[in-house]
Amino acid sequence: MDFNYLYHRQQVSLMRADAAACESSRAAHQGLARLYGSLIDRKRAGRTGGAAASERGSR
User: Fold this and answer.
1) What's the angle, vertex CA 19, arms to CA 18 and CA 23, rounded to 5?
2) Which domain of life is it from (predicted)?
3) What is the average per-residue pLDDT within 21-36?
4) Can you give the residue ranges of every domain in the chain?
5) φ and ψ at 2, to 5 degrees?
């Protein structure tokens, strides 16, 4: 999954949470938004860690 997909899904989940008709739907969409946020954070951390590791290996 690329960043654009993850950011898009997170935003859609947040918009659906705002428009939810009941609390359980709102909570479900907020949970999905948090999940996408976690995936974004993990992907970002992996990308940063990978770049640093490859630079150390080339020295």
Assistant:
1) 75
2) Bacteria
3) 99
4) 3-51
5) -95, 170
Extract the tokens encoding 33. 């938004």
**Three-state secondary-structure class, residue 3:** helix
Whether 58 shows a pLDDT value over 80: the answer reads: no
Question: Cα-flanking dihedrals φ and ψ of residue 50, to 5°?
Answer: -65, -40
The 8-class DSSP code of residue 13 comes to: H
Q: How far is residue 36's CA from residue 16's CA, in Å, rounded to a whole number?
A: 14
Please compute, for residue 9, the number of CA atoms within 13 A of its CA located in the half-sphere on the CB side: 16
Question: How far apart are alpha carbons 23 and 5 in whole angstroms?
Answer: 26
Q: Rounded CA gap, 25 and 19, in Å?
A: 9
